[in-house]
Amino acid sequence: MKETFKGVAVETRPAPAPPAPAALAAKVRTLAPTMTRSMQRVAETVASDPAGCAALTVTGLAERTGTSEATVVRTSRLLGYPGYRDLRLALAALAAQQAAGGAPAVTADIAVDDSLVDVVAKLAQEEQQCLADTAAGLDVSQLEAAVAALSTARRIDVYGIGASSLVGQDLVQKLLRIGLIAHAHADPHLAVTNAVQMRTGDVAIAITHSGRTTDVIEPLRVAFDHGATTIAITGRPDGEIAAYADHILTTSTARESELRPAAMSSRTSQLLVVDCLFIGVAQRTYETAAPALSASYEALAHRHQP
Amino acid sequence: MKETFKGVAVETRPAPAPPAPAALAAKVRTLAPTMTRSMQRVAETVASDPAGCAALTVTGLAERTGTSEATVVRTSRLLGYPGYRDLRLALAALAAQQAAGGAPAVTADIAVDDSLVDVVAKLAQEEQQCLADTAAGLDVSQLEAAVAALSTARRIDVYGIGASSLVGQDLVQKLLRIGLIAHAHADPHLAVTNAVQMRTGDVAIAITHSGRTTDVIEPLRVAFDHGATTIAITGRPDGEIAAYADHILTTSTARESELRPAAMSSRTSQLLVVDCLFIGVAQRTYETAAPALSASYEALAHRHQP
DNA sequence: CTCACGCTTGAAAAGTAATTTCATCGCTCT
DNA sequence: AGAGCGATGAAATTACTTTTCAAGCGTGAG
User: Fold this and answer.
1) Which of A209, B89, B216, B224 has a C-alpha 20 to 30 A away from that of A269?
2) Chain A contact for B233, CB < 8 A?
3) Distance A171 CA to C22 C1' (A)
């Protein structure tokens, strides 16, 4: 303790209460009347632009308020902090809270004239929502049954067209890595041709957002008729495809916008389902899956630069 | 600028992007592999207890991590701040945000004996986190530049291998739908062969999580040497690939677990970046993109059952 | 009206924290 | 084994913060 203010000693360690950042504005208002003119200037500046002030050093803030370093430190003390350093930390925290709390929670559609910053935020937000919806809407008993069928399958065929074909390939890539026999078919003719070979103990998976994609339903029907266990990953559990699916995994439909039609955004949801299938199967075949996984990554090692 | 790290000058003013506090944990994960042991200790400590660390001085944090002040400052620089002082401010901000948000949610790794219900919840949670991290860590100015290049490109080639090839195909499918000329290459030989044709006004995009996939770097280098504008979508912005990329879009690394290696989960982050690119380009070419988009959906109508 | 007292203020000194330098140490690759 | 390079921390330097102190300013009594 070295200085006095209004005759009262201003402690270096005002121990009583560690001041909460959120209460800062209130504290400024409370104490303003007791402050001297230049201290008021500092306090006001700090309260009105926490973020901006957090970026300044004592000297910077002194200049900005047209006062001196000493005054800034005095004000910090009065507000309950040991010194300016700590006030500054509190300001940064306050700014962050304001930014988080004041979060506009982007809900509007992506528009043509949105800035890229908005686009990034909105896309991320939409996809997060989509994931949450999918997880909430997924029927775990159906998933369980699908995983069980896959784990013991002799052979797995996956049908997907267009964007869904990529999802199918993703699933197949993963299943191959844990030693299962899986094929992805994007060509409807070849898909049907192969479906004819399917029989009991085999698993056929069809991926279609609309649930009405003929080119994908057809091979699933054929596999179904030949006795294979069939799984549908679709956004329309009541679609035509349901008739030929033993197990239905429902994906969720994201918000549509002109630049981002539903069919295009269904991907996220489908991929989550695919990952759930994969992890489920990997768990149930852990004895063989784990070594196969590590082997597949080691095999790729020399494909990377040192 | 005074010091060097891994042969690269570490700027006193790493101007490009002021790192957002929220992205800090993600950034730690992204950069951890490039760090030295003691820097990793500092980074980890900081990421796991932002609030506690915000209360410490350089010396304090150095002691707590069993390192030196110099190492703490070096780590701060690597994480994108001018020095420890600024990292400390960011930590205070982060701590405040966490306290406000409050929701720590499921953070445990996916284990072999998790029930499927847990698997679904954890996967969804991880992917959501990954999306948030990616959005927070994405450099919008780089994205802006990439979008501009794509919008006026004569021709677009996309290189991706393995899981990244699917992401590349997704991007190409979308670009084709709005009338751009785009090709995806998964075959490294064909990719290089095609890259030779690239010239000024063309755009080449390489997608690799590790940033070290030779088969993908090679075609990008060739395209770069032939004058094309090159874009890298990678989780390692400091990898070899950076040398041949005009614009770098950084993807975020999700938490790893045994059943779900980083390479496998990088997909989510990459797809978000791809979507941002697509929407950005669609906005800037709206006159042609909008009609092309609707036309492409009408064309598919008869492929669905009534 | 002015002078004296005491609070307010900022310049500069003193002190503390952050940054840079540099020598050493340890690891890897011959 | 040892050469070379990167990693590391102790110490020097620099930047920032805090304290001191003397001058300024206002007020109110004489």
Assistant:
1) B216
2) no
3) 55
Which of the listed residues B54, B86, B104 is the one where a domain comes to its end? B104
* Contact call for residues B94 and A89 (beta carbons, < 8 A): no
Name residue B52's amino acid. Answer: G
CATH code of B292's domain? 3.40.50.10490
Q: Which two tokens stand for residue A71?
A: 């005054």
pTM of the complete model: 0.76
The answer to whether the CB atoms of A214 and B303 lie below 8 A apart is yes
Q: How many domains does chain B have?
A: 2
Q: How far apart are CA B160 and CA B209, in angstroms?
A: 10
Looking at the structure, do residues A152 and A298 belong to the same domain, yes or no?
A: yes
Residue B28's CATH number = 1.10.10.10
A58 Cβ contacts chain D strand, under 7 Å? yes
A102 C-beta neighbours (distance < 10 Å), count: 8
What's phi and psi for B82, nearest 5 deg? -65, -30
Shortest Cα distance, chain A CAs vs residue B117, angstroms: 6
- Asked if B67 and B198 sit in the same domain, the reply is no
Nucleotide nearest to B37 (CA to C1'): D7
Residue A38 and residue A56: Cα distance in Å, rounded? 18
Judge whether B126 is closer than 8 Å to chain A, CB to CB.
no
pLDDT 10s per residue in chain A (306 long)?
Answer: 344 444 344 443 333 444 566 667 777 776 777 788 888 889 888 888 888 899 899 999 998 888 899 999 999 988 889 899 999 999 988 888 777 665 445 566 788 888 899 999 999 988 988 898 889 889 999 999 999 999 999 999 999 999 999 999 999 999 999 999 999 999 999 999 999 999 999 999 999 998 889 999 999 999 999 999 999 999 888 778 999 999 999 998 777 777 777 767 789 999 999 999 999 999 999 999 888 888 877 777 666 655
Query: Which positions of chain C lie under 7 Å from any protein Cβ?
Result: 7-13, 17-22
Q: Is the CB of residue B242 less than 8 Å away from at least one CB of chain A?
A: no
Q: Are A96 and A240 found together in one domain?
A: no
The answer to whether residue B179 neighbours chain A at the CB level (below 8 Å) is: no
Q: Which range marks the domain in which residue B194 is found?
A: 137-300
Rounded Cα distance, B82 and A9, in Å: 37
Tell me, yes or no, whether B143 and B77 share the same domain.
no
Quick one: DSSP state of residue A22? G
